[in-house]
Amino acid sequence: MAILKTEYDDEGAVAHAFSYCSIICLIFRGNSALSSKTMCNSPIFINVTSSQKQLLAPLDADMASFVHAEMRRHGVALRLGETVTGFRQDGVSVLTLLEGSEPLHSDMVLLAIGVTPDTHLAKDVGLELGIRGSIAVNERMETSVPDIYAVGDAVEVTHFVTGQKALISLAGPANKQGRIAADNICGGNSHFTGSQGSSVLKLFGLTAASPVDSLEHTIRYKKNLPINTEIETELKECADSSREWDGKMEHLLHIIT
User: Fold this and answer.
1) 104 with 98: CB under 8 angstroms?
2) Do 69 and 243 contact (CB within 8 A), yes or no?
3) CA–CA gap between residue 202 and residue 219 (Å, rounded)
4) What is the pLDDT of residue 39?
5) What's the pLDDT tens digit per position in 57-115?
């Protein structure tokens, strides 16, 4: 069993690892793993496993069903709503152990489950931290200590649709934050008013885009619920709708192909 740790966009390293495999188990949370050119161009069999009830949580359930259908049309097996409990070596293969289901056999397991900010330095020097350990900053990208600035994936931002604090790791906002911080360091008065969390990816022959942060975030905003309120009922309704649309899309694709 080997571990490949690389940047999310290092297609060369991933392609090299894929060249030794015929079956891959991809365990993911988020979007970037699905947009991998290597995965989309690979002839190998891929299992996609996720604890989420649908792929691409920012999409509404009926829209996510198009993504599910496109992946299945290209031979990708989806195991949604599954909880991975561990891994075990089985000869030259790897077993991915699932809660309440038979394990998955594969040549390689690829974890694409996101990252959390490495803000130990900020914490050690006494900077105020925000949600999930992010660095709290004001609109000038200034931390709780005057003349110390922070930008990028590690900072807490304001979602300008909901007004709630969020951690949005995207290149566009990070670039803008860097320019704003530079302006202020040089005596300017620039402000970062928030981020929307828009995203877009290409998946086989399909392009999927969303202008919002997440389905969960949208539900909380529409129902005016605090960030720590359980919304299992609402999410279950979305999951049930997703499964219904999956069936409709599979039937439609069977008719037209």
Assistant:
1) yes
2) no
3) 26
4) 57
5) 777 777 888 988 988 888 888 888 888 899 999 888 889 998 988 998 888 887 777 77
Q: What DSSP element (H or E) covers 69?
A: helix 61-73
The pair of three-digit structure tokens given for residue 58, joined into one six-digit string: 């920012």
pLDDT tens by residue, 164-191: 888 888 888 999 999 999 999 999 999 9
Report CA torsion sign: 171, 172, 174, 179. Answer: positive
Distances (CA, A) of 242 to 68, 77, 79, 245: 9, 16, 14, 5
Structure tokens at 118: 């490495």
Distances (CA, A) of 79 to 17, 54, 82: 22, 10, 6
Highest mean pLDDT out of 25-34, 124-133, 202-211, 248-257 = 124-133
3-class DSSP state of 236? helix
Between CA 241 and CA 143 the distance in angstroms is 43
**DSSP assignment letter at 231:** -
33 Cβ partners below 8 Å, 6+ apart?
8, 26, 39, 110, 112
Say which residues have a Cβ less than 8 Å from residue 92's Cβ, sequence separation at least 6: 107
Q: What angle do CA 127, 131, 137 make, to 5 degrees?
A: 45
209 membership: H or E segment, kind and range: strand 206-210
Residue linked to tokens 């004001």: 138
106 and 114 in contact (C-beta within 8 Å)?
A: no
Collapsing DSSP to helix, strand or coil, 67 comes out as helix
- Token look-up 């509404």 returns 60
